[in-house]
# Entry
Amino acid sequence: MVSPRPKVARPHRVVGRYQVYAELASGGMATVHLGCLLGPAGFSKLVAIKCLHQEFASEPEFVSMFLDEARLASSINHPNVVASLDVVAEQGELLVVMEYVHGETLAGLLRLARQKSQVTPLAVVVRVLCDALDGLHAAHTASRAGTCLDIVHRDVSPQNIMVGADGNTRVLDFGIAQAALRSQATAAGTIKGKVAYMSPEQVQGRAVDARTDVFAAGVVLWEALTGRRLFFSPDSRDVVDLLLKAPIVAPSTINRAVSPALDQVVFRALQRDVQQRFQSAHEFAEALRDAAEEGSRRDVAAWVTSLAAESLATRLDMLQKLEASAIHTQVAVPLPVVTGSSPYAALPPTQERTESHTQATTSTSISPHPPRSRWRRRAPWLFAGIGVQSAVLVWLLVGRSVPAPLPLSASRPPIAAVALPAPPASVAPPHGPAEEMPVVSADSMPLSPAPSAEVKAANKKPARAASSASHVGAARTAACNPPYRIDASGVRRVKPECL
# Structure
């Protein structure tokens, strides 16, 4: 439940992330203010904010239905419908944030035309009503997940038709109209609102559909063509009687420029029997285009600026001041924590995204600590590179310190194969009987000459006792595997103990 809060007189107030400024329009249920959406990184956007009166914002049932209908209204995406951007329920207030349209409502433009005794051009009226009907048809046929939402405006009136200075007409307040109607009918058993624009079935409490909005648009068309009110009386009960029983006067009797074909279009839209009425807003718009010439958007824009030049200039000055104020306003809106790998994840709003900052940013979230220096960021990689280079250098030095065997010279004559003598008979082999040594070829022999007999005799070991014969054989076999060694000059030398 949204609790009421007393109003405070000040230039603007802040509700959530919105700044609410001067009042643009006022109605029985809410007031429309000029507002500004403030976001991080200096982002701002002009919006229109509709603030509900306290007596409506304090009703829980109304609030729940209002929020539900606002979500439905966000499903309508059409250039002739004012987009609903957000719903805010904070600080005791309930706000509807809408697209800002620089222009005037059709009610204000018709009032200015009466004050200046000007007749609205037929082509402009046709264009404005056709745009509004296109927006209504988009609402009637809007769908979500393949299901038609059956959105009925239920409050089509000149106050809810905005004619922009760009010549485009938009329909307002889908969500509020539906939620307000349900809340009032449930709470008091009666229907409140603009009775003069309701259809007969709506006044009588019967089921409503798209044809209800067709009847209301017919009333708006009649008043735009004649410059008068169709169902008007100071007493609302008299308005209901006129709505249900009074004959419809042809617009051509008041405005001679209206053709009979246009009269027939108005009569069919205002049929009290829903079966004889236009069955859709699209059908109504097509019949209106066939009955009269439709003006261009430029014609509508010229009509708006000529009638509302003073009010538009005042509002434009207000917009310029608001934009200047928003630029210099420091908004304490924290940046969201980003968990991706974007290099711009942790950029503050005022810091330029330079190339060096992009390369240095490695964190995936916003950290409260100051960024590390360039040396501290690069030190681990530098040390790792030095270690890899050192390991490669050591490997090269160790690998090249052991000389490879010299190849045989092609000019040296081949050496005949020499059979090595068998070991002495007194030395028993470690495993089984003694075997003959393999014949060593010239390719496996060293380049130095074979040792002499004296060297063999000097290096020959005396025989040991029979008890240690097995140990000697094992040691000799291990020492003679391989039976040569490589000296400092790279020459293979046969081990003396293996002779």
Observations:
- The radius of gyration is 49 Å.
